[in-house]
Write a structure and sequence with these properties.
Blueprint lengths: L4 H12 L23 H4 L9 H17 L6 H11 L2 H11 L11 H13 L7 H22 L12 H15 L1 H15 L18 H12 L2 H11 L27 H17 L4 H18 L7 H4 L2 H10 L1
Helix pairs in contact: 1-3, 3-4, 3-6, 5-7, 6-7, 6-8, 7-9, 8-9, 8-10, 9-10, 10-11, 10-12, 12-13, 12-15
Length: 328
């Protein structure tokens, strides 16, 4: 399966349908008093849609990425017009002010941080627009928070949900390599220190509400921070039996029993994120192992792509993960 104009238009229509959809909405919001009880559009004038802040951020990443890669799709004009109305100084200032609230220090940490940096990196690629320049203050503020967070994060968080450390670092590193060499160094040093000794991963997954493979996301993170030869050595110790398709759970797509249940619907995302990881890791492997990785990626894509749209519990975010997989 390859990303083409038909799929790009489909994903663009999905994202355009939710990045400005006010409700339903799940806030990550700490109330300090009655005066803080405000609607999402007031609190987050840029990222009020898509059910929650982080999904709106990566919904916008999906839109901008598709606009750049497929500039002639019918939806490209609507994407640009909406982005011109969204990424403006006043709305950025309101988002920054929200971050500066004393109760917002952990807001969207680290998942939303990584996605915002990834969005800014995409925005600057649109040289015909000011979107990257407008978003840069918000990106810089979250990069500073990530740097401070790594300095005090004693242990990696390995869960397959939003708190996963590896996933945020993968997204942030590409941004940091371009905009913040100090943060890039910190990410590489932190990941190497925390993960370098991991061996013979048992891959006890999936959990019932996970959308990330704890094993493959860590491996993908290490593939980004280590030189190729060092990564190959590390990977052979971390997953030494993939030629035999072991651990078996990494090769079997997760079953989704109820796509109207937002947590259980996460498992469609797990299948897509595994496809992204297997495709990416396959480019670092050779021979039979590379073939096994590609086969596993295809199996997971086939299981999840039909369900990118349908129920809003998945529709408000799954296209972003499908795009990661198809671009890998």
């Amino acid at each position: 399966m390859k990303l083409d104009q038909r799929i790009a238009s489909q994903f663009a229509r999905i994202a355009l349908g939710h990045v400005t959809k006010d409700y339903p909405h799940k806030l990550d919001h700490v109330l300090a008093g009655d005066e803080d009880l405000l609607p999402p559009r007031v609190l987050h004038p840029m990222f009020f849609g898509s059910f929650d802040w982080h999904s709106c951020v990566h919904g916008w990443w999906t839109l901008l990425t598709l606009r750049r890669q497929f500039p002639h799709i019918f939806e490209a004009k609507a994407i640009a017009e909406l982005a011109d109305q969204t990424f403006v100084p006043g709305k950025v200032a309101t988002e920054l002010a929200y971050l500066q609230r004393p109760s917002s220090t952990g807001f969207e940490r680290p998942y939303g941080w990584g996605w915002l940096l990834h969005l800014h990196l995409e925005a600057v690629r649109h040289e015909d627009r000011m979107w990257g320049l407008e978003l840069e203050p918000l990106a810089r503020a979250l990069a500073e928070r990530l740097h401070g967070y790594l300095a005090k994060l004693t242990y990696p968080i390995r869960v397959g949900t939003h708190f996963n450390t590896s996933f945020a670092l993968i997204l942030a590193l590409e941004w940091a390599d371009k905009f913040d060499p100090s943060l890039a160094r910190a990410i590489r040093l932190w990941a190497i220190e925390k993960f370098c000794g991991d061996r013979d991963c048992q891959a006890w997954e999936p959990g019932g509400d996970e959308f990330l493979s704890t094993a493959l996301t860590e491996a993908l993170c290490m593939s980004r921070v280590l030189p190729d030869e060092e990564f190959a050595t590390w990977f052979r110790g971390f997953l030494p039996r993939i030629a035999d398709r072991e651990p078996a759970t990494l090769f079997v797509p997760a079953s989704v029993s109820d796509r109207s249940d937002g947590k259980i619907a996460h498992l469609d995302g797990l299948n897509l994120s595994r496809a992204w990881a297997w495709r990416s890791l396959g480019s670092k492997l050779s021979g039979g192992e590379a073939a096994v990785a590609r086969e596993a990626a295809d199996r997971h894509l086939d299981a999840a792509l039909p369900h990118v749209s349908g129920d809003y519990m998945g529709e408000h975010w799954l296209a972003s993960f499908a795009l990661l997989a198809l671009m890998a």
